Batch of 4 targets.
Target 1
Amino acid sequence: MKKERIDQLLLNQGLVPTLERARALLMAGRVLVGNQPVTKPGALVTGDAQVRLKGEELPFVGRGGLKLEAALETWEIDLKGQLCLDVGASTGGFSDCMLQAGAALVWAVDSGQNQLDQRLRRDRRVICLEKTNFRYAQLELTGSYVDFAAVDVSFISLKLILGPLYGLLVKGGHAVVLVKPQFEAGRGQIGKGGLVEDPLVRQEVVRQIVEFAQALGFLVRAMRESPIEGKKSGNLETLLWLEK
């Protein structure tokens, strides 16, 4: 029997509304073939394969939304009517979370392209800014100061992001920033697959980002561990709550 990609099969069987949602569920380990989890969207399976979703479907288009949701709930951050910015939007998990929390408008910024979920692309409350390197961002990017921002970036240090972020936030505005240790630690401190196992290294990474943010003028309101690990590296990540 002819084989097809597992993400396409999920879409064809009506288990997900979009390919982006299929890929998010796969990378979250929520797709089972038989009783075995499949995590690679390009994995090939036969058309008669017994495919099912594990647990409830993700409430957001990407698993990143679960991280931001935890921050908003823990710190009781109210986004109703807010102008928001999603830096490192990817499929749009953070953007989706912001909208569901009542955001009036979200600028979804990413250096890549064709990643944002189609449902969000069609949403009039979302402005998609693809192929945009945020490290060079100025107020012209949005044309307006934003009330709230969330940051989830890869392959770049937050130290290159926090300055432009500070410039776009309104005075008194808030931000939730995800600290990924593999993109902040020294090369010799990172293990196979990008895993940073030493808790002391992770703590030092967070300390350095906190001090850098404070030097820019941010108030560091709180921090907490992300409720889920990094999807590829398995790293323990930290959420910071900043205020301008």
Note: Residues 116 and 198 are 34 Å apart (CA to CA).
Target 2
Amino acid sequence: MRTRSLSVAFGATSVAALVLTGCSGTSSDSGSGSTGSESVAMMVPGTAGDGGFFDQAITGVEAGAEQAGWTTQIVEAGYEPTRWQPALDDLANGESATIITSTFAMVDLLTQAATRFPDKQFAIFDAVVDAPNVYSITYRYDETGFLAGVLAGLLETSSGVDRVTGTGVVGVVGGQDIPTINDYIDGFEAGVASVAPDVKVLKAYAGSFADPVKGKAIAADMIGQGAEIVFTASGGTDTGVFEAAADGEVWAIGNAEVQTTSPEINGTPVVLTAATTSTRESVQDAVAQAGAGTLPVGETRSFGVADGSIWIVESDLYTETVPQEIRDQVDAITEAVAAGEYESLLTGE
């Protein structure tokens, strides 16, 4: 388990200190004169460093702490679940008055911790905990999928786009059949239907977020049925989907901005763009509110396009490949989603 402490001076534009250690889940304080009301801690049920979900949140913690003039403590507890409760308890027993963690895997542990530490306030993102001292953050993954579907539908019904021949078929691969992933998939189907109602959407679940072999087989089957664009929301399984797209010479749409920074698989450009959901903005907002003494514990807030948390990444490959007319349409629909114009379609009401 790795722990790092960060000290953020009020008004500073950079982190004053960064210490990485190989300890068991506690860390030394950084900064001076810090008290519990002037610090925030985050327990990561995993590891950071890949530029993705947890890294975005850590950046948000740092930015929010800078606004508040608070110190921060980040604990990377690793992926072994037996380490999570001790790490969370260590932080709750420490000086930080506000403790942040994430994902549905932490719901039970945080529910228990919130009861044991009623004087602490907690926040969890990408999950909901019903407790009077916990603020919950969720994301509009249906909006993420919707934007991906809009792009896929527009591309599939266009002419002159490389690798798109107009088969009228697109696909979406989900990691597991769970509500979050179903939000992605339902949104994707709605997005395609909103701009290209005659395009067929193939969908399948890999049953795992860590099975690229299965992901590759599923995507290859879709491509064999004519899919020319495949959206994936399957964690580590995404890699296999991208490999199948490279082999089949079709486009893939990812779900994380970091996937667009290295869009090639075996020398073939594959990840056209990503419909991404960022945790940074929501976590930064939570920390800033905690610093101001206004964190809305006991409540849940959902973040989406309107909050700047969801968008289509304008990667180099995207701008080079997708015609300006389609990009303009995607931008216009993104603005409409932010304005709530597609709410009934997304919620099914």
Note: Residues 2-139+279-307 form a domain with the Rossmann fold fold (CATH 3.40.50.2300).
Target 3
Amino acid sequence: MTTGSTLDELTVALRGLGSSRPDPDDLQRLGRRVRRARRDPQAPAALKIRIISSFLVDMLADAVAGALLRRGVIADVELAPYGALPMELISGSPSADLLMLLPSHRDLSRAPPMGASAEEVEQAAVAEAGFWAGLWPADRPVVQLTFDPPATRPLGEADGLMPGGKLHYARAVNRHMARQAPANVALVDAEALAGAIGADWHNERTYALCKQPFANSAIGDVAEALASTAAGCLGKARKVLVLDLDNTIWGGVIGDVGLKGLVLGMETAEGEAFVGVQRYAQALSRRGVLLAVCSKNDEAIAKTAFGGHSGMVLRQEDIACFVASFDDKATNLRRIAETLNVGLDSLVFVDDNPVERAWVKSQLPEVLVVDLPEDPTGYVQAIESARCFPMHRLTREDLTRSGSYQARAKTTAAASSAADMGAFLADLEPRLTWSGLLPDNADRVIQLIGKTNQFKINPHLFGLEDLEKLEIFAISLSDSLQDYGIVAVVVTQRRGPDFVIRQWVMSCRVFGRRLEHGTLEVLRDAARRHGSERIVMTFTPSAKNGVARDYLAALGFDGESGELAVAVNAALSVPHHMKIMEMKNSA
């Protein structure tokens, strides 16, 4: 690890480390170095994260700061006083960009006595979960560790299965908290963490000294889980799993051994391991992670396995971008990012060859490179351990994302040969549908605001309570190829003669579809109804949102010092190719 002290040096060095499970001491040292680097007057702005716990977390705080930096998040991590949970939240919402709440099972106060009925246990668990849910502020992201499994089990092996068991009650409370959690709250599964670590999860002496429910050796895993979840809440989650082919998703080199020579299928242990890799990748795809192929292969030969081998789980339609050539893999990864319209820091690269991994690390430090073991039976666990794709809400748009990228690829290919772009887009029969904030779209609205980086006018996030006080436009797109779901959100309010856009985000999946023109028409109609003369916004430049500034300029927004405006009745391009409809049950 570099000994440099600037944040840029630390970030580049860490992104080049790949996915190796970090040592807790390394994370803590890194966190301390982040604090020192933050003293530099020229240091960039950092997110303020406050940890509120019922036990001592001094060592964990530095590890969390280090784990966040590994994910590109520069944070000032501050600690509430010892034992401040839950009183600090009861007395008032503390100032921070994100809160981390760390209780332990010893904070459970409503557990009924042993021998209570199942109904009594369930009622107590609902009340206990309701108490904790009532503490969550609605105006910022919250990451909470669920209640950890008790170290002792009075009912033995049945403790987690029978009413009256301590573990059974903790599980019940966790389950009800998950049901009650709003979109701005993400839970980290303490029982899953404990299970992965095993007998080393709890140390009685550590608990006696500082009431910490997990051993010091588990600090790295806890910090990584908290940081990964927080990064997801802040829009820093990875988006694309990029897979090599030969000896990564099947055994053997297809160009040498052909289809029949591939090791793939349930007949052998090694073949079953590769089936497991494909099943895992497909499961990620179905929950919204994009899959791409980056292989040194003849493309036609490589594609014969997809649908041509009986052991294949993945199909070509599962792959959002397929790049097989004999160019170096850093070059091909750049092509994949460009094709999918995502940043390099959205990519996770999986390759069995350590030389290829080292090359990508050296050339593209933004890409997260998974360090695979030699044995393919360990590949899935290696990817899983990297915690690349955190998720705390599953929306309809997540389930259809892979298909929408396939549709986008078809659209892009057809558009490249079209003589008249307007006529081409009209042939797709696009339909823009908009609504206000509704109970069934609130999760997606908050998710899209949080995770979007390119078309985003400023860094402001909004909780449900904030959004309910403002006028929201949730924009959906569908066409003859795909229903894309909600792909844009505009947060607005009236201010004198102005119709103010507080936030405007649009998914990169629909770039080039002129959805922004249709969205502006919706906004202009709303502004006219309010009697507004101008539509105004504050645009805050970032490293990633230059594309938004270009789109806004094309729409007619103009101004200085970040204050942009367009007249409501200005002569602007109207998207005649797009049908615009308001949902009947819109706000």
Note: The radius of gyration is 25 Å.
Target 4
Amino acid sequence: MRIGQGFDVHQLVEGRPLILGESQSLMKKDY
């Protein structure tokens, strides 16, 4: 599930972090 590619991960993470595991995975892949 790649949300960073076509989704505002920044807004989601800043507004309300998704599943801990999901958010961490995105952060590691995106950032």
Note: The chain has a mean pLDDT of 58.
